[in-house]
Amino acid sequence: MSPLRADLAIIADNIAPGGRVLDVGCGDGALMAALRDARGVDARGMEIDPANVELCVARGLSVIQGDADSDLSEYPDASFDYAILSQTLQTTMRPDRVLEQLLRIGRKAFVSFPNFAHWRVRLSLLWGGRMPVTRLLPVAWYATPNIHHVTVDDFRALLDERGIRVEQAWFLNGDRETSAAAANFRAEHAVFLLSRND
Amino acid sequence: MGRPPRAFATSPPPTPPACRWGDGRTLTRRLLPPNSPPTMADAAALHASRRLRLTQPLALDSGQQLDGVEIAYETYGELNADKSNAILVCHALTGDQYLASDHPITGKPGWWVRMVGPGKPIDTSRFHVICANVIGSCIGSTGPASPAADGKPYAMRFPVITVRDMVRGLVGLLDGLGIAQLHAVVGGSMGGMQALSLAANFPDRIRSALVIASSARHSAQNIAFHEVGRQAIMADPEWRGGDYYGTGKGPEKGLAVARMAAHITYLSEEGMHEKFGRKLQDRDAKTFGFDADFQIESYLRHQGLSFTDRFDANSYLYITRAMDYFDLAEEHGGLLANAFAQSKARFCLVSFDTDWLYPTAESRSIVHALNASGAAVSFVELSAPFGHDSFLLDVPALDRVVAGFLGA
User: Fold this and answer.
1) Which end of chain A is more exposed for a tag (fewer CB within 10 A), N or C?
2) What is the ipTM of this complex?
3) How many domains does chain A fold into?
C-alpha cells in the first residue's frame, strides 16, 4: 500500500488507538484503512463521489455517500472521538458551519487545508496578477473545487471568533514539516487539531 | 421488481397452453384431484424445489397462527463445515427461489443469475447461497393456494401476513437447516425489506445486511399503486371472492392489469422513453382503434399476460398487502433507530438515481437511523437508467459494491 499523504500521516500518528473516528471526505479510504489496520480504530467515512464509496466498501470500510455541507447533520452529537476533514474545508459551501458540525459530532476535530497565503501564492498574485495554479491548487480558477480559499491566519481568526481551541497545529512544506513561525507565509499546508473551549 | 424484462419482444411470443393458470392451475397441482392430468410444468415444479416443513406453527403479527408451513427453497454453493458461509437472498414481490437456476414454469434463467454463481459478485464457489419462496407466495411455499385444514385451498381464508411474518418463515427455514448465523442477508425491493426486518427482529442471525433499492416503510404512493393492482384483480368477475381454484379459470385479466400498472413503476420515464418512445407496434400508422398501436402498450400487455402464467392472483393480493403494512419504525416504537439498537451487523444500502418507487431519500432515512444507532453502515446512490428494476439489470457498479461488501 502506498504511504499516506503527509497531512494524513500526521493525523494518523496523532489519533489515540481504539477510538471512533469519522473521516469526512474520506476519498478512497486510505486514512480509514490505515487507522483501522494499524491502530484498531473504528473508522467511518463520508464521501461525495460514488466511485470512491465503491472502493471504500470493497476495502471493508463503512462509508456513506454524502455531502459535508448538507449531510453531517444526520450524525448524533459527540458520537465520535475524532471528526476529520482533510483538504475539504475550502471546497464546502459554508466552511464555518461544517466546522461547527465537526465539533458537534466529534469531541475533537482534525482539519487540514492548503494555505492561500503561502509565499508562492502571494508571488503569483503579486507578479503575475493571476489566480495561482500550484501543486496544492492545481486547477484554474473557473474549474477549481476550492471555492473558499483560506489562509492560516483567516482560519485562526475564525477559530477565535467561534470559541474553538487549537490543541495542536502542524505546518507542511511539500511533504516536510515546517516550523510554526511565520506559518502563514511559509507553510503550504496546515493541519489543526481542534476542540471546543468549554 | 420480480423478473427483469430480459429482452424486449416486439411481438409477444405465443404462450404454451400447458402452463396457463386457467388451464390446470399448474402451481397448485397438489391441490387437485389425483386424476387431473399432469403437465410438464407440474412435474418440474414438483421436483425442482427443495421444501422444508416447519415443525412449529408460525405465530403471525395479526395474532393468528399458521400451521404446517412449508418453505420451498433452492441453494447454490457448498455449506462449509462450521456453517459460517451462508448468504440468504430474499426475493422481491413476484420473485421466487429460482435465484440462479431455471424457473421450472417459464423455463427462463434464474432472476439473479447475473449476480449469483461461481466467480460472480455473490460467489457460490465461496458462499452457500440460499433463496426461499416467501410465505403467501405461490411457488411452493405455503400461501393462499395451499390447502387449509379442511383440505380445500385457503383462498381468502389465508391470514393476512406481514413482511415480519415472511421473515419468521425464513428464520424457521434457517433453524431447519441448522444455520445459526448468516454471513449476510441480501435483498432488493421487498427483499430489502425482509433483510431490514431480519436485521431488526433477529439481530443475532446475521453478520451483515445488504439492502438494495428498498425502503423501511411503504409510502402513500407505494400503497396507492398496490391498491390499483388489487382492485383490478378483485374487479375481475373470475376472481369470485378468491375462490377460483379448481374452476379452470381465474382473474387473469385483473392480474395482468395489476402487473401492467406495477411494471410502469419499475421503469424510469427516461428508460421507457428511450426504449419505446412513441414507436408503433408492427404497423406504419395509427389504426384509430384500441388495439396495441404503440410498442409500450404491446410490451405492457405482454408483461401482464405472461405474468399470469407464473403467479397466483390471491398471492399477489396478500404479498402487496404485506408490503403496504411494512413500517419498520412503527414496529419499534415509532423510531427507526430503535429497530437497529440490538444489531451488531454491518450494513450496506444502495439506491438508484432513477428509482422513483423507492427513491434515494428512503435509503437515506434508513442510513440516518443506522448512524443514530451507531451501526457500521455504508451507503451509495448509483447512477443507472433502468429505474427501480436497476437492481436486477446490468449495472456494473452494483456488481462491484455487492462483491466488495460481501467479500470484505
Assistant:
1) C
2) 0.89
3) 1
